[in-house]
Design brief:
This protein is of the alpha+beta class. The protein is built from three helices and ten strands, in the order ααβαβββββββββ. Strands 1, 2, 3, 4, 5, 6, 7, 8, 9 and 10 form a ten-stranded antiparallel beta sheet that branches.
């Protein structure tokens, strides 16, 4: 009886995986980007001043780290438990670009859909978990490293 249940469950999982693959193939190679999907849903891209107001003097918490945007254009990032210092700027079209040592220059932009703000990088919504006033990188506990601990 147990082996029949396991076999049935494996067949069910396999069918789900095949179904998911077929769904993905339906639109390839012209699948819409997250930006296109959000725009169709009514989201609008933030303008340069809106982006500056959103990040200047604030900490963004990301899935694997976060960033603090100093008002003078300096940037502190904590990514996968490693700290980096660099710089950031916002272009006229609202694109935020940053440069960190040993990283290529990266750029992203934000879209707002009825008050919910999305961070898009290379056409994908990578999201922001939270935004805090001030430099809160140290308080992002699960990212804490030896650099942050008081001795």
């Amino acid at each position: 009886m147990f082996s029949n249940c396991v076999k049935l469950m494996l067949v069910f999982v396999a069918l789900q995986v095949i179904s998911a693959c077929e769904t993905v193939r339906e639109c390839e190679p012209n699948c819409p980007t997250d930006e296109e999907v959000l725009a169709r849903a009514g989201a609008v891209r933030l303008e340069a001043q809106q982006v500056k107001d959103r990040v200047t003097g604030k900490t963004e918490e990301w899935v694997h780290g976060g960033a603090y945007y100093h008002p003078d254009g300096r940037l502190e990032v904590k990514w996968r438990k490693v700290r980096y210092k660099g710089s950031w700027e916002v272009s006229a079209d609202g694109t935020l670009c940053y440069q960190l040592p040993r990283w290529q220059r990266r750029c992203h932009f934000y879209m707002d859909k009825m008050g919910e703000v999305y961070l898009l990088d290379e056409g994908r919504n990578i999201g922001v978990r939270s935004t805090y006033d001030g430099n809160r990188l140290v308080s992002l506990g699960r990212y804490e490293t030896g650099l942050d601990r008081k001795k």
